Protein backbone atom coordinates (compact mmCIF):
# COMPACT_ATOMS: atom_id res chain seq x y z
CA UNK A 1 0.00 0.00 0.00
CA UNK A 2 1.30 3.43 -0.92
CA UNK A 3 0.89 6.29 1.53
CA UNK A 4 -0.37 9.66 0.37
CA UNK A 5 1.33 12.25 2.53
CA UNK A 6 -0.92 15.18 1.69
CA UNK A 7 -4.58 15.24 0.81
CA UNK A 8 -7.00 18.05 0.25
CA UNK A 9 -10.10 15.88 0.52
CA UNK A 10 -12.51 17.45 3.05
CA UNK A 11 -13.09 14.12 4.79
CA UNK A 12 -9.35 13.68 5.32
CA UNK A 13 -9.08 17.17 6.79
CA UNK A 14 -11.96 16.44 9.20
CA UNK A 15 -10.34 13.14 10.23
CA UNK A 16 -7.05 14.86 10.96
CA UNK A 17 -8.79 17.49 13.09
CA UNK A 18 -10.81 14.92 15.07
CA UNK A 19 -8.01 13.67 17.30
CA UNK A 20 -9.15 10.06 16.71
CA UNK A 21 -7.03 7.24 15.29
CA UNK A 22 -7.93 6.74 11.62
CA UNK A 23 -6.72 5.63 8.21
CA UNK A 24 -8.41 6.28 4.88
CA UNK A 25 -8.17 3.90 1.96
CA UNK A 26 -8.64 5.13 -1.58
CA UNK A 27 -9.81 2.32 -3.80
CA UNK A 28 -9.22 1.50 -7.41
CA UNK A 29 -11.57 0.61 -10.22
CA UNK A 30 -13.31 -2.73 -9.73
CA UNK A 31 -12.27 -5.23 -12.41
CA UNK A 32 -15.46 -7.30 -12.12
CA UNK A 33 -17.58 -5.10 -14.46
CA UNK A 34 -14.94 -5.48 -17.18
CA UNK A 35 -14.98 -9.24 -16.74
CA UNK A 36 -18.80 -9.23 -16.73
CA UNK A 37 -18.72 -7.37 -20.07
CA UNK A 38 -16.23 -9.81 -21.58
CA UNK A 39 -18.83 -11.66 -23.68
CA UNK A 40 -19.97 -8.39 -25.29
CA UNK A 41 -16.36 -7.36 -25.89
CA UNK A 42 -15.58 -10.78 -27.33
CA UNK A 43 -18.54 -10.48 -29.74
CA UNK A 44 -17.33 -7.02 -30.82
CA UNK A 45 -13.70 -8.14 -30.87
CA UNK A 46 -12.64 -5.08 -28.93
CA UNK A 47 -12.83 -2.96 -25.83
CA UNK A 48 -14.21 0.40 -26.96
CA UNK A 49 -14.11 3.40 -24.66
CA UNK A 50 -12.76 6.92 -24.34
CA UNK A 51 -9.85 6.20 -21.98
CA UNK A 52 -7.17 6.91 -24.59
CA UNK A 53 -3.74 6.59 -23.01
CA UNK A 54 -5.15 7.17 -19.52
CA UNK A 55 -4.18 4.69 -16.84
CA UNK A 56 -6.38 3.09 -14.21
CA UNK A 57 -5.58 1.00 -11.18
CA UNK A 58 -7.73 -2.12 -10.96
CA UNK A 59 -8.59 -4.40 -8.07
CA UNK A 60 -11.26 -6.91 -7.16
CA UNK A 61 -13.95 -6.17 -4.62
CA UNK A 62 -12.61 -8.97 -2.44
CA UNK A 63 -9.06 -7.57 -2.46
CA UNK A 64 -10.35 -4.12 -1.63
CA UNK A 65 -12.57 -5.43 1.19
CA UNK A 66 -9.61 -7.27 2.72
CA UNK A 67 -7.39 -4.17 2.49
CA UNK A 68 -10.06 -1.97 4.11
CA UNK A 69 -10.58 -4.53 6.86
CA UNK A 70 -6.85 -4.56 7.63
CA UNK A 71 -6.39 -0.77 7.77
CA UNK A 72 -7.50 -0.33 11.41
CA UNK A 73 -5.03 -3.00 12.57
CA UNK A 74 -2.05 -1.25 10.98
CA UNK A 75 -1.02 1.34 13.58
CA UNK A 76 1.78 2.61 11.33
CA UNK A 77 -0.95 3.85 8.97
CA UNK A 78 -2.71 5.91 11.65
CA UNK A 79 -3.42 9.34 10.22
CA UNK A 80 -2.57 8.28 6.67
CA UNK A 81 -4.46 8.14 3.41
CA UNK A 82 -3.50 4.99 1.52
CA UNK A 83 -3.87 4.09 -2.17
CA UNK A 84 -5.34 0.58 -2.40
CA UNK A 85 -4.48 -0.32 -5.97
CA UNK A 86 -1.91 -1.96 -8.16
CA UNK A 87 0.18 -0.20 -10.78
CA UNK A 88 -2.18 1.73 -13.10
CA UNK A 89 -2.45 0.32 -16.64
CA UNK A 90 -3.84 1.52 -19.98
CA UNK A 91 -6.90 -0.01 -21.63
CA UNK A 92 -4.60 -1.64 -24.20
CA UNK A 93 -2.68 -3.28 -21.36
CA UNK A 94 -5.99 -4.35 -19.81
CA UNK A 95 -7.00 -5.95 -23.14
CA UNK A 96 -3.66 -7.80 -23.26
CA UNK A 97 -4.15 -9.13 -19.72
CA UNK A 98 -7.73 -10.18 -20.40
CA UNK A 99 -6.52 -11.94 -23.57
CA UNK A 100 -3.85 -13.80 -21.58
CA UNK A 101 -6.23 -14.88 -18.81
CA UNK A 102 -9.38 -15.61 -20.82
CA UNK A 103 -7.89 -16.67 -24.17
CA UNK A 104 -9.58 -13.83 -26.06
CA UNK A 105 -8.17 -11.74 -28.92
CA UNK A 106 -9.43 -8.33 -27.94
CA UNK A 107 -8.01 -5.05 -29.13
CA UNK A 108 -8.65 -1.64 -27.66
CA UNK A 109 -10.34 1.25 -29.51
CA UNK A 110 -10.64 4.74 -28.07
From TrEMBL:
<protein>
    <submittedName>
        <fullName>Uncharacterized protein</fullName>
    </submittedName>
</protein>
<dbReference type="InterPro" id="IPR052718">
    <property type="entry name" value="NmrA-type_oxidoreductase"/>
</dbReference>
Amino acid sequence: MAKITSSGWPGCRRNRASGLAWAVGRGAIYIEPDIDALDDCRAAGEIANSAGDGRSGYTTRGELALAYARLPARSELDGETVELLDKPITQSQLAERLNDVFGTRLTCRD
